[in-house]
Structures are given as structure tokens and as C-alpha cells.
Amino acid sequence: MDAGELLIGQIINFSGNPFLEGPHAAHHDASGGLVIQNGRISAVGSAEDLRRDFPRAKVTDFGNDLILPGFIDAHVHYPQTAIIASWGKRLIDWLNTYTFPEEMRFSDPEYSAEVARCFFDLSLSHGTTTVASFCTIHPESVNAFFAEAKRRNLCAVGGKTCMDRNAPDGLRDNVQSAYDDSKRLLERWHGDDRLIYAITPRFSPTSTREQLEALGALWSEYPECPMQTHLSEQTDEVAWVAELFPEARDYLDTYEAAGLLGAGGLYGHAIHLADRERQRLLEAGGALVHCPTSNTFIGSGLFDMDGLTREDQIVGLATDTGGGSSFSMLRTMAAAYEVAQLRGRPLHPSELIWLATAGSARALRLGDRIGDLKPGYDADLVVMDLASTPAIAQRAARAKDIWEALFPTIMMGDDRAIRDVRVLGQTALC
Ligand code: GUN
Ligand code: ZN
Asked: In this model, does residue 430 exceed pLDDT 90?
């Protein structure tokens, strides 16, 4: 039996959803800890109790640092790593000007592997232990993503991005090849170690109705797989979808009619939603993924976090790199706070942390394995210094409770706050 490792520090975990139950759904222990055995969390509690109960465990004492579940980025485009922070365009122009030319390069397996390495280095160094990523239309890009995630023992979600129209030559598949390639990649990678394949139509403007239907048919063959796409990000895009699909009742209906609405569906952005769309997302159990740095950077709009969480929609949080402007889920939480403020609702730090961990895990249907500190969960962790810069330290020094101590790091922190990152209990930082 593995005598295990005992990590000591401040800890936060959850007994429920703070959006529904309030901040008391989050539990803080200023001198807490957890035990890792065989890559899993085997016990969580006070440092004193754990020292007594696990006398043979190796002790790693993080002092006042905060131990949290590793962050979960529920919507990202790893192939856009090198074009993050590209200036001056809104969605469709941004795709055509920056994104599509870059994604074209991923027909090269070596380039794909190089960017995948860089992407996971960056994500992990910012405390993110699970991502759900779009790849490109090239199977090579999917193989590179999963090979790199597997090498690092990561729980990672990814899929081949399918597009058969409104994309340049060299960046389009077709109805049959999208289905065949996706199926082959799914059978190759889904369930290999901790890897999860997501069926991935990019969005309705770049797929014909026939391609959406083929991917809907594939999803019905593999309902245990997630399906990821984009929904109602910009008003121009919504108007374009109405032109391209005159028969559809709304944007969501283009997916619904093709069998692409259901539990396990991940709908990125979801800003400009009609009442019918909200109702159907709720009934079907689809998850909305909030991408706040992207939504401000590309000028998309203000996600209705308050209204959607009151309805108990399933909501995750994501960077949407490279439409998003940061690899950091701390920066992403800060942007979520700012966007919600612009809609009159200050999000509590417990809600922000929940979104970046348990909330995103729930959206990915992984909430029984990752995203919280509970016995039996995978030991994917981030340890944060709550005084990582002079500006943060002087503010945190005045804090009267954990939320005041943590909020400056949420608002002003970055990778300098990340002290340690564990994947299945092992340090993952290079
Ligand atoms: N909609 C379709 N593709 C994309 C993408 O790559 N990024 C963003 N932000 N929105 C999209
Ligand atoms: Zn996206």
C-alpha cells in the first residue's frame, strides 16, 4: 500500500453549488490538508487529524498557500496558441484573418506536436489541469493533442473540428470525411488513459446541414462522448446563421434539428439567446460555456451569468484561447467578475472558484472525478500563493477572511501565483 503524501495548507472544497446555496456551499480550512495515494485523493480534513491518521505519509507543508482542485478550462482552441492577442477584428474577420491561416498549418504533424507541447506547458503553468479543446480539421492535430496530453497523464477532452463550407481551401472536410475521421479518432483515443473524445462541429456557419446531421448521427452512436461547438457569440453571426438556415427557428435549432442538442453538449459563448433556446438548453441538459476574456476581446457581448444560473442552467468557464486573451483561469475569473458587474451582479469569490473547478467539471460531465477535493477524486491540484506580487500581498494582508484574502489573487493574479500543480498527485510543472 502506498503510504501516500500528505499535503498541508489552506484548502477549499464544495458541498454544493454556491450559485444555488450561497457561499456556505464552499468550505474553507485554514490549516487543512489532503492525502494522495496512488494518484487519488484518499482523505481530506484538518492537518492535525490527517497527521495523526496517516503517520507514514510523506508530508509536504505549503504553509498559508491555498490548495484547490486544478482549474478546468471548458473551451479552448489549442491550435490558436500562437495567435493569441491578435489585434483589431471581430469574430468573422478574426477567423478569416488570423485563425484560419494559422489552423492551416496543422496538416503538419510536427508543427501540431510543437504547438501542443507549448500549449500544455502554458496551461499547466497557469494551474489548469484539464482542458476541452478544439483541434483543427486535420487528424494530425488531434493525434498531437492527445499524444501530448497522454504523455503528461492529463484528463483532456479534444476533437477534430469539422467544417465543410465557408472556410478556405485546405481547411474544409466534407460530410463523409468529417464522419469517418471523427469516428476513427474517437475509436483511437476515447477512453485511452484519461482521454475523452468530443465530437466537434465548429459552428453552424461552417457546416452544411448534412454535415451537422452526420455528426448528430455519430453522437447518437457514442452518447457517452461530449459534443462541443459554438452558439450565439456575436449578433452578426446569429444573423448569418438565420440566412444560412432559413428553416431554423433560431441558432440552437440548427443543432437541435441535426441531433446535436443534448446532455454532454458543450455550447461555447451562448450570449445572445432567445427564450426558446434557454428553455430547450435547460430541458436537454446542454452546458453553456462562458468565455469572458474572449467575449470582451472580440467584442461579443455580456453573458447573462445571473439569469442563467438562477435557471440552474449548467455553466462552465473557459479561456477560449486564442479568441480569449489569457491562458490563466485566474484572469478568466476576473473577467467573469467584471462582465457580471456590467450586468449588475457581483459574483462571489466562491462562485468564481466553483465555476473554474466543480462547475466546469460538471459541464464536462466529469464532476464525479475532478474539480473538487474529495476522497476518491483524481489528485489534480493547484497550489496558490495568495501574496504572489507586492500589489496582491499588501491587499491580502488586510483580509478578514479567506474570501477577502483570495479575491485579490483572482483579480490581479497570474502564473506567478501558481506554486505547484499536481496531475494524479505528481508535480506537473516543468
Ligand atoms: N466561432 C467559430 N470558431 C470560433 C473560434 O475559433 N473562436 C471563437 N471565439 N469563436 C468561434
Ligand atoms: Zn471557441
From this structure: no
